[in-house]
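Thanks for the sequence, V.! I ran Putative enoyl-CoA hydratase EchA13 right away. Repeating your input here for the record:
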Amino acid sequence: MSDYRFLKWEVFDDGQIVRISLNRPEQRNAQNRGMLVELDEAFARAEADDTVRVVILAGEGPMFSSGHDIGSKQAREEFSPGPGQHPTAAINGGTREGAEKIMLQEWHYFFQNNLRWRNLRKITIAQVHGDVFSAGLMLIWACDLIVGSEEVRFADVVGTRLGMCGMEYFGHPWEFGPRRTKELMLTGDAIGIEEAYRLGMVSKIFKREELAERTVEFARRIATVPTMAALLIKESVNQSVDNMGFYNALQACFSLHQLNHAHWVGVRDDKRATAGEEQGVPNWRAAPPVVAAVKDQVRADA
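Predicted structure:
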């Protein structure tokens, strides 16, 4: 049973385990604003319930998540009325005023949300299948553990497709390692789940047909750990990583991400002026690279 429009909510073991599933399969679980609002509400609901010990984050349909929704009719309607309100306005015809609104939107929906979910007072497990692209990485990196099926690929294509320096929650160097991050961002290539396991990013690999059941079994093992011990383990690791610079690096890279947006707004405005466009009429050909269809997001030879 689901109480949400864009999510599914499932309960196991008398409420000790909750599975929250992204539920926009036709859009490959692209993250529109409504989904992110509901996801924050669902995490808060699980956090407030003392019965819940472990929260699983999964996705319906053929893949876990294709990243941000930057073009569906539903996503555009969520940011109407008003110019420059869409998080990707700097890409899709925004103005310098739009860049400021982008920063506020992304700070709340993409950055602070993920920080809050990372520090949730529950143990969280990302259950992934299919492909995990770009902003899908942010969701799973906010979880304590990641499990997935054998076919999973991970990629952030915003560098090669959008001319951006990564996602708003830039956990890449901590998850992939510094040089692998540079390579993946500069080429748009993907890594498979076996490599992600070797990097320490993924905890368990299951067969696709067994993924849902085996993830719940994994969650049951964790649910037996006393709450105080589980949360102190989580806090000890998170504080250790923060003291190594993780939190400050996230803050700095979010600022760089916004500078990158502002750059493209400036490029667009300069090209618009050079082309003698009428005020407010977007020149789509002057845009930086745009996102291709989901099936074409990762290079065939990756």
